[in-house]
């Protein structure tokens, strides 16, 4: 296969610069997502480095060898930094610039400047090092990341293996002749693979950032901003899925419907800030008072709900009483106390339909209010 090397250089410069500008635009529109900023810098530096390297043979050999490869190594370091930022780590500038600085130092050695094979070996080894460091950042944080990192790891591994293979093959031959103009030599294949790798990494990085942003937006959409527990949408979606599983497994489930007593009076007497404090305190109490497999959420102004899978009425009654007592012990400010009324309904009465459970739980809650509040009532026919 024969490829025209100057055309490949120009294609690299054009596409990398275009992608870098587009990534820069996306970074600007994303309110400064650091990962996209680092990725844009990687693409632009790589495009500039390829352009400078392509000047070799046009009377600027020293500039091409020294500055061009320094820019490429700096791009590799910034590519590593992109994944460091993505996983939540700080930029480490000595490591980012280390490859470029090492190249600059080696260029002061006459033998290094006069030996093509040595320069290519060093450049390839640095590329492999930065590639493995980049993969290590993602692999080390894989348990904390909620996005798919498989495509990026596959790209990085393939890139490292390709560079290692070329390095092993070049060790068997004298590769100084590649600067003589052969289009199908080591440099051509190295340039083509690096071109495809950087494009793939740009799109894969953008996909990871977008996926994480969507997950964050979804989490915000399903959280109550005041109490930081699930909102009505989250409770409904989670409870319906949980009831389907309980029905399939033949397990019971019980609903607790909670309503803070005299909440309007609390707001009118002590102000909305105190009312918000009561909601926050009760939401925290509720989240800490249930099991990990249970679902709770704020479904109205001062109304909260909990679904307890695998719990019958008696077990749910104990949980509800514990929550009620803990609420009555809450002290807001220096003298304000709150209480809660709780209605209980189970799948033994309502079946596995959430709307029916909520309706029966509401009837039980109304009975608790009617009997004086600060109490727990079960639904009875």
TrEMBL record:
Pfam family, one: GGDEF
Cellular localization per UniProt: Cell inner membrane
Coiled-coil parts of chain: none
Taxonomic superkingdom: Bacteria
Any one Gene Ontology cellular component term annotated for this protein: plasma membrane
Domain GGDEF positions: 251-381
Cofactor: Mg(2+)
Matches recorded under Gene3D superfamilies: 3.30.70.270
Keyword terms of this UniProt record: Membrane, Transmembrane, Transmembrane helix
GO terms under biological process: cell adhesion involved in single-species biofilm formation; negative regulation of bacterial-type flagellum-dependent cell motility
Name by which UniProt lists this protein: diguanylate cyclase
Biological source species: Azotobacter chroococcum NCIMB 8003
Native organism taxonomy: Bacteria, Pseudomonadati, Pseudomonadota, Gammaproteobacteria, Pseudomonadales
């Amino acid at each position: 296969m024969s490829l025209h090397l100057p055309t490949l250089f120009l294609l690299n410069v054009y596409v990398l610069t275009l992608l870098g500008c587009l990534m820069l635009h996306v970074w600007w529109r994303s309110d400064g997502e650091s990962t996209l900023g680092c990725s844009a810098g990687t693409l632009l530096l790589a495009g500039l480095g390829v352009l400078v390297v392509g000047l070799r043979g046009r009377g600027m050999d020293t500039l091409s060898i020294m500055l061009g490869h320094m820019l490429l190594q700096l791009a590799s370091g910034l590519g590593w930094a992109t994944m460091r930022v993505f996983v939540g780590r700080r930029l480490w500038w000595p490591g980012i610039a280390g490859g470029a600085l090492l190249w600059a130092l080696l260029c002061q050695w006459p033998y290094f400047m006069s030996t093509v094979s040595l320069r290519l070996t060093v450049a390839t080894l640095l590329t492999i090092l930065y590639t493995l460091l980049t993969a290590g950042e993602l692999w080390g944080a894989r348990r904390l990341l909620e996005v798919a990192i498989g495509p990026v790891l596959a790209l990085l591994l393939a890139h490292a293996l390709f560079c290692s293979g070329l390095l092993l093959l070049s060790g068997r031959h004298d590769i100084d002749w590649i600067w003589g103009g052969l289009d199908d030599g080591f440099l051509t294949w190295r340039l083509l693979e690096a071109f495809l790798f950087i494009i793939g990494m740009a799109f894969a990085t953008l996909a990871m950032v977008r996926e994480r942003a969507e997950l964050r937006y979804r989490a915000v959409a399903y959280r109550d901003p005041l109490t930081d527990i699930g909102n009505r949408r989250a409770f409904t979606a989670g409870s319906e899925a949980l009831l389907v599983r309980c029905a399939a497994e033949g397990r019971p489930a019980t609903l607790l419907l909670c309503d803070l007593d005299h909440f309007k009076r609390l707001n009118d007497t002590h102000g909305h800030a105190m009312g918000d404090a009561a909601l926050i305190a009760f939401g925290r109490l509720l989240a800490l008072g249930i099991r990990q497999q249970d679902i709770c959420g704020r479904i109205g102004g001062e109304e909260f709900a909990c679904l307890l899978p695998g719990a019958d009425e008696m077990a749910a009654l104990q949980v509800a009483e514990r929550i009620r007592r803990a609420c009555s012990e809450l002290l807001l400010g220096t003298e304000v106390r709150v209480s809660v009324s709780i209605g209980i309904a189970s799948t033994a009465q309502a079946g596995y339909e959430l709307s029916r459970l909520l309706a029966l739980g509401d009837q039980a809650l109304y009975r608790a209010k009617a009997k004086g509040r600060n109490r727990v009532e079960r639904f009875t026919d």
